[in-house]
Specification:
Strand content: 25-35%
Helix content: 25-40%
Number of helices: 8
Order of helices and strands: HEEEHEHEHEEEHEHEHH
Mean pLDDT: 91
Strand order of the largest sheet: 3-2-1-4-5
Largest sheet: 5 strands, mixed
Number of domains: 2
CATH superfamily of the largest domain: ATPase, nucleotide binding domain
């Protein structure tokens, strides 16, 4: 008896699969992506239990997709900024898999993942994440093409990373701005009360997802722009 056609199709679809890992903050996200579509995605908020939650969640997600670690062909990881513990654990797992299985690795700045979820809008985008002790870290983005012949138009970083409070971020707003990422209740209150031209992204668009990390990584893989797992280092907040 031959193999059913649907099984053959499934094997063809998952002949390449990238595992994306984002543990930069208390929001953890994982995704399996074959370069065209997401096969599985899992996002949750942890109470700083990255160590005990990450590896079992990866194995469960692989099993649910009918895959094993041996099916992985590439890895992507959130590089930071983020918490020391979260980044160390995520990068450790990603680098370990890349080195042991000789797989290409792509490390992506955390706030670039936030920006990738936001559709084009007029003005600026500011991506934020919580930095602890009432502070936030943020990066401004503008919609433009990159350098080169035919790079896609997308949100690209403008200026340097900043660290401070919500009032510091709002004080920088001069033209229409959307803020996306880890916006706490205090941040939403401040953004809604100010008379500056700024608004918060919706909760769904503000969620940092590994599916977007995977898509950024696939674009870099196609451009042969990978990272050396021996030398790649995290970007910390301090």
């Amino acid at each position: 008896m031959g193999v059913p056609a649907d099984v053959l199709v499934l094997k063809e679809v998952v002949c390449t699969v990238l595992l994306a890992i984002d543990t930069a903050t208390r929001t953890i996200s994982l995704a399996l992506h074959d370069g065209e579509r997401i096969h599985a995605e899992l996002t949750w908020r942890t109470a700083n239990h990255h160590t005990v939650e990450l590896s079992p969640s990866i194995m469960t997600m692989l099993a649910q997709a009918g895959l094993t670690v041996g099916d992985l062909t590439a890895l992507a990881v959130a590089q930071g900024p983020g918490s020391f513990m979260g980044l160390r654990i995520g990068l450790g797992v990603a680098k370990g898999l890349a080195l042991s299985r000789r797989l290409p690795l792509v490390a992506v700045p955390t706030l670039d993942i936030v920006a990738a979820a936001q559709p084009r809008t007029r003005g600026r985008l500011v991506a934020v994440l919580q930095a602890g002790r009432g502070r936030i870290c943020w990066q401004a983005y503008t919609w433009r093409r990159g350098k080169g012949r035919t790079p896609p138009a997308m949100w690209r970083p403008r200026g340097k990373l900043a660290l401070g409070g919500w009032d510091d971020l709002i004080a920088e707003v001069e033209k229409e701005t959307v803020v996306s990422g880890e916006i706490d209740p205090e941040g939403r209150r401040r953004l809604s009360e100010t008379d500056r031209p700024v608004r918060a992204a919706s909760g769904a668009l503000a969620l940092r997802r590994a599916g977007h990390l995977a898509e950024i990584a696939w674009a870099r893989l196609r451009a042969d722009a990978t990272d050396d797992p021996f030398t790649v280092t995290p970007i910390y907040l301090h």
